[in-house]
From TrEMBL:
Family: Belongs to the class I-like SAM-binding methyltransferase superfamily. RsmB/NOP family.
Enzyme's top EC category: transferase
One of the Pfam families matching this protein, by short name: RsmF-B_ferredox
Protein name: 16S rRNA (cytosine(967)-C(5))-methyltransferase
SAM-dependent MTase RsmB/NOP-type domain ranges (all copies): 171-442
One GO biological process term: regulation of DNA-templated transcription
Entry function: Specifically methylates the cytosine at position 967 (m5C967) of 16S rRNA.
PROSITE patterns: SAM_MT_RSMB_NOP
Keywords: Cytoplasm, Methyltransferase, RNA-binding, rRNA processing, S-adenosyl-L-methionine, Transferase
GO cellular component terms, A-Z: cytoplasm
Catalytic activity: cytidine(967) in 16S rRNA + S-adenosyl-L-methionine = 5-methylcytidine(967) in 16S rRNA + S-adenosyl-L-homocysteine + H(+)
Subcellular localization: Cytoplasm
Length: 444
């Protein structure tokens, strides 16, 4: 029996975990003993790519099947998806993509599955090479666009209603692009200029961020970056959009800061760096293991003013108030679908109702922690108005002691909304999506 390519077999096994166990793509680490680094990198790319393009791959494969794609053995589904991804998205030569997928199907199942994979993928390859691939044409714009660009129909329909066809297509394209990594220089131990030079020495090709002078972007995180710069705390992985939320908070040296939903800790640590490690940053998270990780990361960065605390912000029994409070609320994550390849398939319309209720309760709890005259910053990585502007409006109705404070020069002009909030859009700014609003508590 032919031996399948280790990277493709590893990718198929991980895709099975996503399909059958609900595993999260971003959390799938090295789970095959002896996997070579190159095979590991390739497997990661295949899992993310197939997860991102799954709907379009399945639809395209269905054109050459007599039975529903969903009725196939789940192992065969993964082998076919990997082959289709290499053919349609990566545009690899047909002989390599087909034969490798066939070997994976045989290794996971049997010769019969391999034969079916061979027949279907060869037909798909011939259609691709002849320029005869079918396109969705149901007449329903949202359904067809969602199928072709591999997103949920309900979400695509929402965005079409809000942004229009051209902007929605650009947003879906942005979600499907291979993301770059943003690295934030730790100004407690280095400078962006020194980080740039260190990245060059590590074999990377860094680019300066368009939006923040603390950040650089790279195509991938090689061993010299992960085991060197990141391990030593000289840099942290943080998207440009997320880092700018801390700019909206604008923490000052000597102040007391509360990050009410802090895990994984990037914003709390960045706040400490912006404060020159002078003052106090209390980083709250519900889970003790996550707060331990925040502490470990803060120690690596030399951010000694960060105080991790495992508690539920909503039920926290404390009367202490703070100069500035950040509530980076749990949300639908529709602004980070490009980074979290499988999240688009995990969200449902009804999730918004449950999330907005949680966001309101967290906002109420966060408001109680703001001293008179202090600042509350509410932020999400969502693009949905229900989780952003609507939550701010509802909060102000419930809390007349707070007023909306337009942001000024804390973020670039291009990211300030007409209402005075911060908004980053993947298809406009080339970052993750993010939202933040400043809410000032009145003096007695």
């Amino acid at each position: 029996m032919p031996r399948p390519d280790p990277a493709r077999l590893l990718a198929a096994e991980r895709l099975l975990r996503v399909e059958e166990e609900g595993a999260f793509v971003a959390r799938l680490g090295i789970d095959r003993e002896g996997a070579a680094p190159e095979a590991e990198r390739r497997a990661l790319a295949l899992v993310a790519g197939v997860s991102r393009w799954r709907r379009w791959l399945d639809w395209s494969l269905q054109q050459f099947l007599r039975q529903p794609f969903a009725s196939l053995d789940v192992e065969l589904q993964q082998a076919l998806r990997i082959g289709a991804f290499e053919l349609l998205i990566e545009e690899k030569p047909a002989h390599a993509a087909v034969s490798e997928a066939v070997d994976v199907a045989q290794a996971l199942l049997h010769k019969g599955a391999a034969g079916l994979a061979n027949a279907v993928l060869r037909k798909l390859a011939r259609a691709r090479d002849a320029g005869a691939l079918a396109e969705p044409a149901s007449g329903d714009e949202a359904l067809d666009l969602a199928t072709r660009l591999s997103h949920p129909t309900w979400l695509t329909r929402r965005w079409l209603d809000r942004y229009g066809a051209d902007a929605t297509r650009a947003l879906l394209d942005a979600d499907n692009a291979i993301p770059r990594y943003s690295l934030r220089a730790n100004r407690l131990s280095t400078t962006p200029e020194a980080l740039h030079d260190a990245l060059l020495a590590a074999g990377a090709d860094p680019e300066r961020s368009r939006w923040s002078d603390d950040l650089l972007t790279v195509e991938r995180l090689g061993p010299a970056i992960q085991g060197g710069l990141l391990a030593r705390g000289e840099a942290a992985v943080q998207d440009e959009a997320a880092s700018l939320v801390v700019r909206v908070l604008d923490p000052q040296p000597g102040e007391s800061i509360l990050d009410g939903t802090a895990a994984p800790g990037g914003k709390a640590i960045y706040a400490a760096e912006r404060m020159g490690n002078q003052g106090r940053v209390v980083a709250v998270d519900l889970h003790a293991n996550k707060t331990r990780l925040i502490g470990t990361a803060a120690e690596a960065h030399g951010a000694t003013i960060v105080e991790p605390l495992a508690t539920n912000l909503i039920t926290w029994d404390s009367a202490e108030t703070y100069d500035r409070v950040l509530l980076d609320a749990p949300c639908s994550g529709t602004g980070v679908l490009g980074k979290r390849a499988d999240m688009r398939w995990r969200r449902m319309p009804e999730d918004l109702r449950d999330l907005t209720d949680l966001q309101d309760r967290l906002l109420n709890a966060a408001a109680a922690r703001v001293r008179p005259g202090g600042l509350l910053v509410y932020s999400t990585c969502s693009l949905e108005p229900e989780e952003n502007e609507s939550r701010v409006a509802a909060f102000l109705d419930r809390h007349p002691e707070f007023s909306h404070e337009p942001i000024g020069g804390e973020v670039p002009d291009a990211m300030r909304t007409p209402e005075g909030n911060y908004a980053a859009l993947p298809h406009v700014h080339g970052t993750d999506g993010a939202f933040a609003a400043r809410l000032r508590r009145s003096q007695p």
